[in-house]
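User: Can you fold this complex?
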Amino acid sequence: MNSPSPAPAQPPTPGRGTRLDPWFHSYAERTHGMKASEIRALFSVANRPEVVSLAGGMPFLAGLPMDVVAEVTDRLLREQGAVALQYGSGQGDVTLREQITTVMAEEAIAAHPDDVVVTTGSQQALDLVTRIFIDPGDVIVAEAPSYVGALGVFRAYQADVVHVPMDDDGLVPSELEATLARLASEGRRVKLLYTVPNFHNPGGTTLSLERRPQIVEIARRHGVLILEDNPYGLLGFDGDVLPALQTYDPDGVVYLGSFSKTFAPGYRVGWALAPHAVRERLVLASESAILCPSNMSQMSIASYLATCDWRGQVKQYREVYRERRDATLGALAEFLPDARWTVPAGGFYTWLTLPEGLDAQAMLPRAVTELVAYVPGTAFYADGSGHRHIRLSYCYPTPERIEEGVRRLAHVINDELDLVRMFGTSGETHVSGTINPGPNQA
Amino acid sequence: MSADSDLDVLILAGGLSHERDVSIRSGRRVAESLRSAGISAHVHDVDGDLLAYLQQARPDVVWPILHGSTGEDGSVRDVLDLVGVPYVGTDAAGSRLSWSKPVAKTLLHQAGAHTPRFTTLPQTLFRELGTRGVLDRVLEVLGLPLVVKPASGGSALGVTVVREAAELPQAMVGCFAYGEEALIEQRIDGTEVAISVVDLGDGPRALPSVEIVTDGAYDFDARYNPGRSEYFVPGRLSEPQERAAADLAVLAHQVLGLRHLSRTDMIIDADGVPWVLDINVAPGMTETSLFPQAAQAAGYADGELYAALVRQAAAR
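Assistant: Here's the predicted assembly.
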């Protein structure tokens, strides 16, 4: 065999270093926390079928009538293709906005389509609201723990997130009051209260009916706009729908909704319902970011809502997720009697508190070795806390797989517990930066 | 179209190890480079379909670019031998020796190489003997600072530099999350250098050194996020240091019975002495990895060296 003779092409310059990124020193300061961690890399294994992933927040799309969706899409393209594939309105398709008001009416929201801004998933709405309100250093008050995707947005806009404790009834009003009073006394500017009142991600809890007006009143009194994120509101297992915070103070709340959990995330369609003046800025901000949301996605969803039994589909989802919630809680009771967990009345998640001394993030590689995955609690705190917690998602695996996953997790936890007891460690390791587990795990 | 267009290369990447993501990135990168050199290459995961796929696809050469466990511990290579398909890289026996850091370090120490003094302690041992006495003895004998790392595995996963005695227990727990055995070795201060070795049929030879400079540990983030580390290729070494580092890497390649390619990671201390830390039979091939940088510094065009390695394997 011939050995190739080295070509003279572009050897590195001797004596001069390279960072393999010529723009390394040009990035904006707000991107400095963006990096690929080993935790994110571990989630790559979670996608393998051998692994029971209790990490992913992916809806159960196998429950969708794909033939009906295909028909709707086919008809849309044949009959309105030239519109569907064209640019659209920056605020979003008016037909869909009207339908969105009908969807929101399920939660007692009386909205006008003009106050709805359609976005590329509610994630973009989160981005837009943060963009128009937050200057670097402004404070956003958020539940402890909070949705990881929101924390990522807040970090990107250099907000200072201050967490407020929750209990089984959701955000604790007295804690919110105390936090806002303290921040005011420190002269700090609180711009937003970010909250997921229904079937919290990751907490699994729901803000009680009694607390809803209290939270709204506290925020109003402190002059803080509420950012109400409600992707799971229609997925309550008993079918009851609690009134949105927006209904208590339409001028004090920006409400975010989404079709990702009640229909399908692949369309990337969500929305914001905002007070008039806020809406104007949201539309301008959205146009500067994306020009307009996808017409194809919006019109597909509009056709689906108009021609299919979407309420029946949501009911079916609720039943599937309730069965999986029951499987999760049953398995936890059987295999992890020493742990604590929340009992979700809807949505996708339960929040597990591990025995003292354990660090869920440090334990994740062991779990992956045992072919089970979860998202460690540290992902859901802006301040790096949450070591003793795990978010378990039950939305995607079957009940049998959930049971097997929890059994494996129990094995991992017990082994880890033995180890930390043996070494007498506190279990908390230093967390550098913030975990961004990626779209499938958000 | 070159004569190589007849060669069909199957790259194995992914698997179930903690380094799956890195492996996939490496595999795709090599496939792309091979295609640019006119060789047909495609990437396949290591899963239950692999054997059937190998028999159906009948590639001319397999290149296992699997990082971690089955990819580097020799087991997948054993299977490739059983199937009778030629592959790029070290055989199962050499992989097994390199995969175990304590074994590789011991063999290299016996061959006259410098390697930081170390001890290897499995998790089960602590169950039998308890922890305090053992760790105290480790600190007494090896001193500080120490590096605690899984006895096998890469990408700096589970690695902690211990500068104070109180940090040691936590480092052990962090390490055991990645594997059953912990290697605890003395931390040598100096210049971090990697030497890649290739053997294209005319004996192993070292490529130019890659010197790594990081603002902190050369951890996962520093390895795979461009910008965190600064690389000097060749490293800023004196000629004798470059030669000593190259000799050490070639020695490692020979002593462990490695084939085609390897990468030896080492520290060069203040006296210019290279200390071997780790030997890789499946070095990373990502955008930020060290082997591709060394190949480029040696003057190889994109894909040229990989194509030569594939031809070498095919000629077996």
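Chain B has a mean pLDDT of 93. The longest strand of chain B covers residues 191-199.
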